[in-house]
Specification:
alpha/beta, TIM Barrel, three-stranded parallel sheet
């Protein structure tokens, strides 16, 4: 058996094909989308579109790491990512979700809300 990526209760085989990760930034100062998806409903709709377009994993981030960005606290980051993770989990229970964070508390809450990684 080749390499696998263990995600909660699933294993994703690695090396068979290139996996695609869709990025869902829910920050007002994202360098990649300019804050287009601050609204949770819009972010969930965008994530659903990324899945239809072939994303294997959706990565939800609530704090910009671009140079010069302002850090956000745990509560603010959670307020940004949790509604999106919960919405994406409702839309596609089988879909793989990851959270992009530097904070253990955010990672823990995101996992409890339905993120796989």
């Amino acid at each position: 058996m080749g390499l696998v990526w263990c995600c909660r209760d699933r294993e994703l085989p690695l090396g068979e094909r290139t996996l695609v990760m869709g990025i869902v930034n829910v920050t007002p100062d994202s360098f990649s989308d300019g804050g287009m998806f601050e609204d949770a409903e819009a972010a969930v709709a965008y994530g659903a579109r990324l899945r239809v377009e072939g994303a294997d994993v959706l990565d939800v981030g609530g704090e910009s790491t671009r140079p010069g960005s302002d850090p956000v606290g745990v509560a603010e980051e959670l307020a940004r990512v949790l509604p999106v993770i919960e919405g994406l989990r409702r839309e596609a229970p089988e879909g793989l979700l990851s959270v992009d964070t530097r904070k253990a508390a955010v990672a823990s809450e995101a996992l409890a809300a339905g993120a796989d990684v």
